């Protein structure tokens, strides 16, 4: 059980300028590694986990680019090996949750430098943000063609951190009997990453404000990444208010970003999630599916609630003339046809048609 990667295997993962995908391919070429993995995925995963534990200790006393690279590549490989297992049943979910809790929120961020020694806090920052992104997105391919150096640039220098509700994953572990159940904390928000059960409301607000400031910064420096965040925001009032504010203040236009495609993509994202909510046995299909850190609910009631929130948002866009009606025409048609059984949808359709008649008149 204490087996870990050999020195030759570790060297294959220690290049900070090698893509994660390439580093893992080099690992697979090692003869000893091929012999080890023939015994099964779980055994291979344990070797990676033991290596992570050892190098976490090394990162505290002797942080280096090599140590950062080994940690990044081991976490990446561990996730890839186990990605087909539903998250709540994944034997390494507790490892990822506890790593985020244990490493907390490192303090050293925003030091813009292309070279030089890496600090323990920076190693922790990169590892925590990588884990959060893997667990939330379920898409390791986004990191296949990126290097540990680039991850450091993104997460430390550019401060591209993400909101993360750790209570969602702790709840999964409790429901599976891995953790003992604890009272649900008041601080069950997408900003909770540490192990404390709750935070004061002001703290949560400040964290959300920091996230918004970070997003506004990324709209200037990394627009593609920021737009992806915007189009995958959760279905909740705070998200809708934030998008509405961006349109009212013409923030996107001032940065040369056309707002209509962004909003249309967000609405499509919501429609796809809402569609899944109402599918037969959706509770099984959506098990562990997350909408930007939040567990997606299922069933007719949850579907109706999501549609009503979306209608509120779209009605506001139309009433305030924040977008041309034709820019979201197909989204309006879809929601009016697919959810005609909801009374508010029929009212919304009448509202849109009345507006079109006034325009024609």
TrEMBL record:
GO terms for cellular component: CCR4-NOT complex. Residues 179-203 are annotated as: Disordered. It holds the Pfam family CNOT11. It comes from the Eukaryota. This is Uncharacterized protein. It comes from Bimuria novae-zelandiae CBS 107.79. The lineage of its organism: Eukaryota, Fungi, Dikarya, Ascomycota, Pezizomycotina.
């Amino acid at each position: 059980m204490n087996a870990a990667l050999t020195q030759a295997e570790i060297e294959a993962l220690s290049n900070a300028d090698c893509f994660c995908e390439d580093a893992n391919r080099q690992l697979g070429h090692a003869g000893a590694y091929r012999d080890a993995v023939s015994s099964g995925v779980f055994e291979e995963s344990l070797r990676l986990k033991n290596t992570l534990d050892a190098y976490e200790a090394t990162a505290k006393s002797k942080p280096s680019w090599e140590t950062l690279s080994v940690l990044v590549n081991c976490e990446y490989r561990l996730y890839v090996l186990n990605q087909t297992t539903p998250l709540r049943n994944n034997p390494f979910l507790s490892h990822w949750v506890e790593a985020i809790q244990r490493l907390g929120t490192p303090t050293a961020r925003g030091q813009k430098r292309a070279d030089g020694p890496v600090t323990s806090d920076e190693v922790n920052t990169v590892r925590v943000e990588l884990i959060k992104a893997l667990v939330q997105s379920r898409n390791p391919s986004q990191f296949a063609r990126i290097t540990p150096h680039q991850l450091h640039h993104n997460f430390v220098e550019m401060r591209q951190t993400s909101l993360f509700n750790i209570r969602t994953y702790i709840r999964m572990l409790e429901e599976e009997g891995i953790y003992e159940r604890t009272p649900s904390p008041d601080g069950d928000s997408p900003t909770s990453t540490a192990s404390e059960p709750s935070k004061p409301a002001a703290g949560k607000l400040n964290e959300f404000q920091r996230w918004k400031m970070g997003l506004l910064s990324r709209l200037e420096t990394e627009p593609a990444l920021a737009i992806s965040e915007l189009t995958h925001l959760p279905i909740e009032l705070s998200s809708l208010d934030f998008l509405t504010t961006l349109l009212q203040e013409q923030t996107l236009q001032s940065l040369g970003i056309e707002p209509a495609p962004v909003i249309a993509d967000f609405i499509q994202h919501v429609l796809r999630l809402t569609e899944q909510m109402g599918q037969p046995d959706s509770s099984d299909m959506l098990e562990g599916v997350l909408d930007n850190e939040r567990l997606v609910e299922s069933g007719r009631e949850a579907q109706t609630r999501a549609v009503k929130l979306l209608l509120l948002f779209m009605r506001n866009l139309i009433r305030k003339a924040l977008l041309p009606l034709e820019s979201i025409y197909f989204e309006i048609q879809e929601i009016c046809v697919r959810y005609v059984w909801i009374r508010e949808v029929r009212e919304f359709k009448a509202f849109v048609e009345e507006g079109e008649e006034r325009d024609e008149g």
